[in-house]
Design a protein that fits this description.
By secondary structure, the protein is mostly helical. Helices cover 83% and strands 0% of the residues.
């Protein structure tokens, strides 16, 4: 009986050992698959990084070319870069200086002052515009007054005339 128990316990141990071995093999297989998957993902990411580096290099070349052309055109139009900025490469140029060059190119040199004739012309244009607005208000007031007086003239009763006169005073007070 003791030998039967030993045989059955040995069979159980053998089964449990084989089960442990198969479980261990399954875990190794799963780990191997995960490793392969991570390896392929890593390769894909490396390809993506390389592609991004190439695109970044191309964009950097374009920015450098455009900055250089902007600097050259600005200098041809009379813009003077500070000495420190002038010695730098176009990529190292600060955004503020680049914006100043673009502003100079688009708006011209604001340091050039207007002559006395140009200033006087602008002043006169402003005054003429103001006087035209005043004239338009006066013409509108005169039309309102004439229409109101005409309405009062055609009134048949004194009460209607008083009402129209009050309305006319109210309309004239708006101006």
């Amino acid at each position: 009986m003791a030998s039967k128990q030993k045989k059955s316990s040995m069979k159980k141990e053998t089964r449990s050992n084989s089960a442990k071995t198969s479980a261990s093999l399954k875990e190794q297989l799963i780990q191997k698959e995960k490793l392969e998957e991570l390896t392929t993902q890593n390769e894909d990411l490396q390809k993506t990084v390389q592609k991004c580096k190439e695109e970044n290099g191309a964009l950097k070349e374009k920015v450098e070319y455009l900055s250089k052309k902007i600097m050259e055109y600005g200098q041809s139009k009379g813009y003077q870069l500070p000495v420190v900025e002038n010695s730098k490469s176009p990529l190292d140029l600060s955004k503020e200086n680049l914006n100043q060059i673009l502003d100079f190119i688009t708006n011209g040199d604001k340091r050039k002052k207007k002559g006395p004739v140009e200033l006087r012309v602008e002043e006169l244009e402003t005054r003429i515009t103001h006087l035209n607005m005043e004239l338009a208000k006066m013409v509108q007031l005169r039309l309102s007054l004439e229409n109101g007086l005409e309405d009062i003239e055609f009134c048949e009763t004194l009460v209607d005339a008083k009402t129209k006169a009050r309305f006319l005073l109210y309309e004239l007070s708006k101006f």
